[in-house]
Amino acid sequence: MADELLTVPEVMTRLKIGRTKVYDLLRTRRLVSIKVDGCRRIPSSAVGDFIAVQMERAA
Length: 59
Known about the structure:
Layout: E1 5-6, H1 8-15, H2 19-27, E2 34-36, E3 39-43, H3 44-58
Antiparallel strand pairs: 1-3, 2-3
């Protein structure tokens, strides 16, 4: 089954961070994304992977 593709506002809500921070994570490739007809989409698994890495670093 394919990942759900999230919009930037949906990622903002899930991570409780601002738009600028989401785009910073995308720019620095800490959060993976794809473009669909010019619209940025983030796989839900990429959000989960980002959280897992942050949890490992915090431990």
